Fold Large ribosomal subunit protein mL38.
Amino acid sequence: MSFSNLFMKSGLNVVVRDAQAAVLMTATRQGHTIRGKPPGVARTLEQRIREENVEDPEVVARINIGFPQLKESRSAQLKKRLEHLKSQRSDKQLEQLARSNKLIIDLDKVQGTYVKTTGQHDLRLLADHYGIFEHLFGSAYFVPRVPLNISYQLDGDSLAPVYNGNVIKPAEAAKPPQISFDGLVDPITGQAAGQDTYWTLVASNPDAHYTNGTAECLHWFIANIPNGKVSEGQVLAEYLPPFPPRGVGYQRMVFVLYKQQARLDLGSYHLAAADYGNLEKRPFSTLDFYGQHQEQLTPAGLAFYQTNWDESLTQLYHDVLKSKEPVYEYDFPKPYLADQKFFPLKQPFNLYMDKHRDQKQVNKEYLERKLAKTHPFEGPKKPLRYPNAHPIRDVPSWLRTEIRKERLGTGRVQDY
């Protein structure tokens, strides 16, 4: 190894000016300086943005527009609990049933106790999690003081109850649900009201009105419900089943119960029978509705569920809404692909070529090959009992691999 190569191997730069003299220049690491404050002292980007976008806490503060709740004193609650505990311990029959594993707990009483204690606040937290208050009432919220019992009638005696955000298919929600609540109880005190009460029930979907992106779709409107009897209320808008389009995912169906101060004239929200399936007549804004009638209405109950597309909606779009059924696809960002090479090394031939083709065309070709092997009356061929035992001859290696994967049902076959 020459003298100059030795210095090159060791990381030294050699510059030969002439044949008689050589100047050696070593590569040294230059120092650096920090501009501004060090990372431990300087503010982060999040802190800078927060300081520039200062929000007034009084302006952004959330407002409780619901009913308050008169709570008993802590001593009174503790006294009741101790009395109940003493009565339970002194009950000998209850102890015998518990020891013999014959004690039956009434779950309806457990549910009733839960609703009266922490169930209201849990429902409010769930509604916040799903964005119900934000998309319906803006910066306002309320604690549901009146429990709503909503269930859809299915085949036979089975019911599909509306819990706090459960999934109900459009086929199950095709008919109006059964709704009940205690309209004779004062939401503040929890005691009997002592006079006639009137209520308003509104069912809307904040995700469904695809012709107006800023409005909700009104599905049901019943006003002046006397003493909780929903069947005797004034129906201003007939029930319209949910119709989530295909490809948009889950949508929220929200039921809001308002307590009226007295009978109200809400005829401006009446929807004619001829406009039942006209979506242009069903835009609704819960925030505007409450802002206009906030002196006479107070939200008291809440229930909601989620729904997504199923096959029953095709008939609803064609027969009721009188429109074509929309289908949406998510526009994924195109993946980065390097320039296509004439001879890609260590790349499967078919997979590399399909990367640079339209994915829909690839799916179409695969479906055509699959249908070509399917008998119109007898269906597809039966799979081989021992797929790897049958030899595959006179085909390229990449095609042999594809045939083997297709026989085993692995690989890209699972994507179609």
About this structure: Residues 144-320 form a domain with the Phosphatidylethanolamine-binding Protein fold (CATH 3.90.280.10). Residues 6-23 have pLDDT under 50 and may be disordered.
